[in-house]
Amino acid sequence: MKVGIISIHSAPYKDSIYSVLSKKNGIELSVFTLYSKSKTHDEWKKTNKLPYINTYSSKVLRLPFFGDYHRDALKFIKNGEFDVVLINGYYPLTCFSILRYLRRKKIKYVYSADTVASKPGILAAIKRRIMRSYINDAISLWVPGKKSLDYHMNTLRLDRTKIYTGSYTFDNQAIHEIIEKNKHEFLKVRESVGISETSFLFLFVGKLIKKRNVKKLIEAFNEIIKLNNNVELLIIGDGEENDYVIKSKSLNNNIHHIERVDFDGLHKYYSIANCYVHPGIEPFSLALVEGSIAGLPIISSYEVGAAMDVLADGENGYVLHFNTTDELKNKMELVINNKFSRDAVSSISSELINYRGHKWAASQLAQALRSNEDVYKK
Question: What is the CATH number assigned to the segment(s) 2-170+357-369?
Fold first, then answer.
């Protein structure tokens, strides 16, 4: 089976899955990547040595309103003579032109998306209707996890049997081994950031944009240290709220901030943390997943997609149902006071490491690509 993949950019979760897929019997894999680097994740480096053919786009048209159009992407599909194509639902003009071609030529395709909620407005409704039309003609849908699966089932009314998960999945075993190895450098890493050996450390990793609610996190943390000064907060990331974080750090010695860290360098910070916290909004969140891989209790907003996959509320951490500053503060205090199940933390971590890694994700994708039905049931 000849498989063509339209990939948006290099990423550690995609490269590992596609590498496993390329080694499966009966699959001849070719990947076309639109960008050599992610626009939003500087820490994700381009992978040069891959066990499959990977071609990067070199012809991009910058168009007002429509965004970028990659002229050579459609040529890749036309010349590839693929039995099935995996296409991501991003960069509408490039992907829309490919989807139109695939449907016109009756070439089978798998549609991949991470949507977890509908946007309001007439324009969003029109886009949703167009998207559903193309998804209905796909042989299957590949999504990150449970929240996205629920959205496509309940909002777009798609058949559950045609939806596969795992599109955002690391080599969890490898990451866990790195984190465990880094624990031997616990003191050294903490000292490098200026964090006390004995303090309870909260960790957040991500873009510092409004949707991540970093301001709310800092406000809750500032309330906590009024009663407990042996608690610290490490924020890793940059973005539009960078100045606010830097100012907060200057006013509070218990707040630490690192702007940019390469992906390979991030793991050591999970090894020194006591809890991972994400009070924001995000379709999935691989940072939340890595927190669970590291064996940390998790605090997360219900609006973070990955929470449904790695968080059992009240067991290995807490879901923020209302996502207020007071609720966040209360949940952080519960974790500080060991009000969670260490057995649950260990159990969910073990499941991710041993059963739900990149090999499992590649198996999910292989099943999606081999789906025999041409249309979703409405």
Answer: 3.40.50.2000
